[in-house]
Amino acid sequence: MPCKSNSPAVRRYFFRFAVSMVLYAVFLVLAVWIFVHFRPTGPVAWLLAILPALAIVGQIAAFGMYLAEEKDEFQRHSGVLALLWGIGATLSVTVVWGSLENFVHLRHLDLTWVYPIFCIFFGIAHALNQARYR
Amino acid sequence: MKNRLRVLRAERDWSQADLAQRLEVSRQSVNAIETGKFDPSLPLAFKLARLFETTIEAIFSDEN
Hints:
The structure holds two protein chains of two kinds.
Chain A: H1 8-38, H2 42-69, H3 73-104, H4 114-132
Helix pairs in contact in A: 1-2, 3-4
Chain B: E1 2-3, H1 5-12, H2 16-23, H3 27-34, H4 42-51, H5 56-59, E2 60-61
Antiparallel strand pairs in B: 1-2
Helix pairs in contact in B: 2-3
């Protein structure tokens, strides 16, 4: 969600984002179904396990492509700022959580939560940016 | 960075959206530049100067 305007770069970003979300849902359902019914092992199991994650990597790549394609320098700047806040906040939360896990045996945080945590912080940072420059 | 964008716009009776359309940027971009929250790149500053038929120095000032 880079910005409110409808620049061609934004439209392409939303299209790529939607495609990656659909692929994620399809790959996830497919992987769970195959694991439950066929209990695959070896390279097939690895490939199936990686498929949903590849769709998420596609989402990250879509944002990178948006930043490369967006001609409006302020919107690019705003996107990079939100990205940095998202990354910084996610690193801070996960490193504190990791330390708590080590010392006071806090419940283990599964690594698959890192991306959703990043999305929350990125979304907040982006919304604050949009409100600031409305 | 201080600037005279609001004055220059008013002289031509342009809204922020009008200026944004002429610059091919978003309205938020114009607002951010106009309020001094975002400094434009040199190419965008030149584009503004050409649009208002003046110099970059006549639009922007680095004095506090």
